[in-house]
Amino acid sequence: MRSTIPVQHADSAADPTDKPHTHVYRGRGFNAGEGNRRFVAAGSDTEKAAPTIGSKERRRKESDRRMLRAAVALIGRHGTSGASLADIGVEAGYSRGLPVQRFGTKLHLLETVIDTIQDRFMRQVERRIDGRTGCAALAERIRIQMEAVRDMPDSAIALYHLIVDSTGTVPELKPRIAELHGLYRDNLRAYLLQARKMGELRKDVDIEQNVRAISGAISGICIQALVSGDTKKLGEDAEFVAELFLDRLMEPTSKPANSGKAKAGAGAGTRSAPRRVAR
């Protein structure tokens, strides 16, 4: 099968009229327009332009991102009641009516904000947990959530506003918030159950009680840091919380021999020791 080579062409984002460009295929002196795409794809010597995302789609995605960022900023400053769809459009640099066109209702936009924050966080969890298992994975999971609040306080403030408002001014959000909490607890529970299966936990450990306690400790400390306006120590606090719970949860034979932090880059499948707070 003959290979095809993409031909570079002007980026369609530069075209304010958003008219589709004619993709030109070159080979053996033959120039084919859009109507000959099947001929080119069939394996002729003709060179083929690389597929590109249309300028309209790119602009739509970018405007959606900007509106979601604007929503996070306004919710963080004024709560959900102070973030109208019209205000979000203006804050993002667009018309007052664009958020309505894209999201339909304010509830849908707020749910999309939660979706975005959740997806970003879970991708971070997947990336950082890597090959860790059991208690080592649980310790890293605690760090991830608290460090996320430290590194992205605006998103965290907006999320906590949404959580609180779901119990009052926006009760329609309650099912989505319950789903979010359920996902976070399921994630913590999975590492605890894995640790039990690996023989790392004491026999009397109540999994559900510890899921609630760990989740509550993370949220409580993070909210206090956000209220005080000082999130810089959340990384240290995460180490403390991880050590506090693991000291109580783990069998003595499963605890690391020293109190130093676990070596970075522990390979997949190895039971790396959870990092500890330096004293």
Explain what you see.
By secondary structure, the protein is mostly helical. It has three domains: 12-52, no CATH class; 56-104, Arc Repressor Mutant, subunit A; 107-254, Orthogonal Bundle (Tetracycline Repressor, domain 2). Helix content is 57%, strand content 2%. The protein contains ten helices and two strands, in the order ββαααααααααα. The chain has a two-stranded antiparallel sheet. Strand 1 (25-27) and strand 2 (30-32) form a beta hairpin.
Secondary-structure blueprint:
Layout: E1 25-27, E2 30-32, H1 37-41, H2 55-78, H3 85-91, H4 98-103, H5 106-129, H6 134-151, H7 153-165, H8 174-197, H9 207-228, H10 234-249
Antiparallel strand pairs: 1-2
Helix pairs in contact: 2-3, 2-7, 5-6, 6-7, 6-8, 6-9, 6-10, 8-9, 9-10
Gist?
The chain has 279 residues and is an all-alpha fold.
Multimer state: single chain
Radius of gyration: 25 Å
Average pLDDT taken over every residue: 80
Q: In one word, what is the shape?
A: elongated
Q: CATH homologous superfamily of the largest domain? A: Tetracycline Repressor, domain 2
Described by strand count, sense and barrel closure, the largest sheet is: 2 strands, antiparallel
Question: Briefly, what CATH class of the largest domain?
Answer: Mainly Alpha
- What is the total tally of β strands? 2
Measured distance between first and last alpha carbons: 65 Å
Order of helices and strands: EEHHHHHHHHHH
Relative strand content: under 5%
Poorly predicted residue ranges: 1-50, 258-279
The CATH topology of the largest domain corresponds to Tetracycline Repressor, domain 2
